Amino acid sequence: MKTYKQLLVVGVVLFGLLSFTLPSESTTYKCMIQMTNYTGESAYVVVSLINPKGDYEETLSVQGDDDEWYHDISEWWKFYGKKRGNIDAITGATIAGGARNISIIAIDDSKIDAGYSIRFETAVEDQEYYTKDVAFPLTSETVKSKQEGTGFIRYVRIMPN
Amino acid sequence: MTISIWRYSHLALAVSSFVFIFLASVTGIVLAFQPISEQIQPYKSDGFDTVSLAETLSVFNKAYPEVTTLEIDTNDFVSASVISENDKNLNGYFNPITAEFLGKKIESSKVFQFATTLHRSLFLKGVGRFFMGLCSFLLFLIAVSGAVLILKRQRSIKKFFAKIVNDNFAQYWHVVLGRLSLIPIIIITVTGVYLSLLKFNLLPESNMSQSINYEAITERPKQDIAAFAVFKNIKLTDVKSVEFPFSSDVADFYTIYLKDKKIVVNQFTGEVLSEINYPLVTLLSTLSLNLHTGKGSIIWSLVLAFASINILFFIYSGFAMTLKRQKAKLRNKLKKHKCEYIVLVGSENGSTIPFANAFYKQLLKAGKTAYITELNKYQTFKKAKHIIVFTATYGEGEPPTNANTFLQQLKNTEQLQPLSFSVVGFGSYAYPDFCQFALDVDRGFTAQHAHQFLPPFKINDRSLEAFNQWVSSFNTASGLALHIPQKKLVAPPKRTKALQVVRKTEVKTNPDNTFIVTLKPAKNLRFNSGDLLAVYPENDYRERLYSIGKVAGNIQLSVKHYANGFGSNYLNSLQQNTVFKARVINNAAFHFPEKATRVLLIANGTGIAPFVGMLHENTSKIDTHLYYGLREQESLIVYKYDLDVVLKNKQLHQIHLAFSRVGNTKYVQNLLQNDAVFVAETLQNNGVIMLCGSLAMQKGVLETLNAICETQNQKPLRYYQEKKQLKMDCY
User: Fold this and answer.
1) Nearest by CB to B125, which of A28, A32, A125?
2) Is the pLDDT of residue B409 over 80?
3) Fewer C-beta within 10 Å: chain A N or C terminus?
4) Are B43 and B102 in contact (CB under 8 A)?
């Protein structure tokens, strides 16, 4: 009886370890978003992984935790709004003008140097919505770089953690 | 005129914005509890007030592989964003001394989120924000115009918080609460407007760019963060937030946001690279936000909630007053140039108008041609023969708003026929200039050589009895038989309380037909000697007032029995232990002074009742003398026991008696005249004189007192009355 139990425990642990380690050939990156000194409400910022065809592949990070306003980030909403996966773990607060935010994002190693790119969308209540505030191809060079923004973002810095 | 402009603006502003203000207040009350609900969370750590920035940063850097930001909110909770061993973001509250994770950030509940959005933008985003900002500004103007109205009413800034008389629930509390919440409301509205301006970028932009010479930054000499002099000198309580360096590159640094400035510090050497003071706009924004939301202070949040509740009450009471004024508007059936009788009304808040209207209607009913209008609309009335004026007095002997140009117009207007006039003044003994304006109107007509049909008549506290008395003398003089229906003039009994008869003395045994009835309130009831008890013998609109003496927690009334007395028969018929309902009317103008160098109590007959109570309450043994007029020695028997007690306890110093039916007829005023020097000295030294009894006695006593004041002190009695050294309650 006792041995059965032990076996069961070992089995579960093994299964857990395998299932979590197998697809985890990903690297975490530290990503800093520095905003411009704009005035107004804090900005919603969505970071997404874009596949070589130019479509959304995965949501990497969402700054802005009030889902009432998500539909204002319309391009991304077309992708996310259909399925509404669980993004609690990668969601943070909106970022105010002049402020910076640092978050950890995880990207599959297979996506580097494979035609994928990363996109930062920003939207502020009653102001503009930038679909490509910052966007750049994912290469082993760009994952440790600083990229200038074109909208509410002044620049983004990213580096492997 | 000036008052009406302010009042008109006050009303117009309120009418135009009350829907928004109502929404803002209701949501404001809810939101006031958000900072309170946050403050009571257990995230404030012991030792927070003394720890330095160097200690906290050092312990965080040791505890976590990486820290990105640290924030201290208005509740003194320390929150941070760190990256833990397994590369996960960890956000929440931390202990600033041990760097221990305490819990997730407080999520504001759905109720607060809903209320916040409604409060600032009505769910209409920019448009809504604009409207709420505008309504905040309008509320500011309402508060300012309200303050001006109070100033006008009180006549000077010094008297801004002086007592006002409670003669109408809505009006009294509108003014009292208005004064109390004026400053919080002004703060709420000014900060509200400021926050709106901020949202719409209407404030001067701040330039906070820092100039750092990146070439000159060096890694040497390297120091441990715990040893950074700059961090050691900063207390954590002065910090708003800290941004940690993004990487170990020397061009990445610590940015510390303090309460008044921002500093940038080299992450290796602890050298200060840049220091910028916040511009005024930023400081004011923080201040406005904290004041408007109550963040960080439970007490201020409660003040904000109180002010918001008051705003709701102001909306209600303001409209209640307006409706009452509208109701009291004057309407005519006949053209003014066809009427013989002209009824003129002077009223500040409309309470005199029902009397004038009732009289006007009875004139019409009696088949007379009558026209009713405001005093300010005085002009040539082609057929006028009789003018009847009903007027209140405003503030300190001033005319009410709708009568303020009357005296001037009176001088400049010619009437075609000889006029007779009668003036009725409405007012309250609580004010020193009782019915002063009515007397001025009377004098004005006399100066125009009009015929005084009836002498000026003063009515205290809208007394129906007094009004009927005047109507009957008008009937006698004019040969008319006007009868005023009373129901419209007096409200049925309200707010009555149950009282039980404890004991009652026999009328038969008393030479003056006077009896004393002692009543015990069934429930806790607050009252003082000098307050009035309104009794309703038939449980209808007719009330009778009696002065209360508070003895051993009971209400003690002294009543003279008349064979046909409406009130006295009723009270005399009450058996012991009977429970009946009556209403206590607060009469703060006739309470025993809490402090005085000396008090003289002057009474005749049953007027002694409140004084018996006051003497029992004179526990601080103020030097008190009683001047009491009565018929004969036996009249005193009913009061003897009570007076002996207070004399023995030194709560009463001396009694002076005047007997009107024994030997040489003597009245209280004769006693006062004998003690003229003593009386004058009492007033001179800020003593207080209190008067209770019949109107005849009041007249005699006031004349004597005035003569004493003028001969001894070279000042009119009025001077002391204004200083509230003379208190009266006569009937």
Assistant:
1) A125
2) yes
3) N
4) yes
Q: What does pTM read for this prediction? A: 0.63
Nearest neighbour of A103 by CB, restricted to B89, B113, B208: B89
Q: Is the pLDDT of residue A5 over 90?
A: no
- Per-residue pLDDT, averaged over B55-68, amounts to 92
Residue-wise pLDDT tens digits, B323-353: 877 766 788 888 989 999 999 999 877 778 8
Give percent of chain B with pLDDT exceeding 90. 49
Structure tokens at B106: 């407080």
Is there a contact between A161 and B87 if contact means CB atoms under 8 Å apart?
yes
Complex-level ipTM: 0.78
**In this structure, what CATH number is given to the domain that contains residue A154?**
2.60.40
Pair B243, B81: CB distance under 8 Å: no
* Chain B 76-95, residues with CB within 8 Å of chain A CB atoms: 81, 83, 87-89, 91
CB contact under 8 Å between A30 and B126, yes or no, is no
Cis amide linkage into residue B221, ω under 30° from 0: yes
Q: What share of chain B is helix, strand, coil (3-state, %, to 5)?
A: 45, 20, 35
Q: Which residues 180-239 on chain B approach chain A with CB closer than 8 angstroms?
A: 198-199, 201, 205, 208
Query: Tokens in use for B40?
Result: 């009571």
Res A148: pLDDT: 94
pLDDT, tens digit (0-9, with 9 covering 90-100), for B278-287: 888 889 999 9
CATH number corresponding to B497-589: 2.40.30.10
Look at residue A21 and tell me whether its pLDDT is greater than 70.
no
**Fold of the B329-478 domain:** Rossmann fold (3.40.50)
Confidence of residue A12 (pLDDT cuts 50, 70, 90): low
Nearest-Cα residue of chain B relative to residue A157: B246
Note down the domain range covering A57.
Answer: 26-160
**Cβ-Cβ contacts under 8 Å, B87 against chain A:** 28, 104, 106, 161
Report the domain count for chain A.
Answer: 1
For the segment B152-180, what is each residue's pLDDT rounded down to a tens digit? Answer: 878 788 888 888 777 678 888 999 999 99
B83·A104 Cβ contact <8 A: yes
- The beta strands (E) that lie in chain A are given as 26-35, 44-50, 56-63, 91-92, 100-108, 117-123, 129-137, 145-148, 153-160
What is the per-residue pLDDT for B10? Answer: 92
Judged against a pLDDT cut of 60, whether residue A15 lies above it is answered with no
**Pairing status of strand B239-243 against strand B89-94:** unpaired
Q: Does B68 contact A102 at a Cβ distance shorter than 8 Å?
A: yes
Tell me the C-alpha to C-alpha distance, in Å, between residue B402 and each of B265, B324, B422, B657: 71, 16, 19, 48
Most A-contacting residue of B66, B79, B86, B87 (CB-CB within 10 A), to test interface: B87
pLDDT of residue A3: 59
Which residues in chain A have Cβ-Cβ distances shorter than 8 Å to B81?
A: 102
Contacts of A32 in chain B (CB under 8 A): 246
B656 Cβ under 8 Å from any chain A Cβ: no
CATH node for B592-730: 3.40.50.80
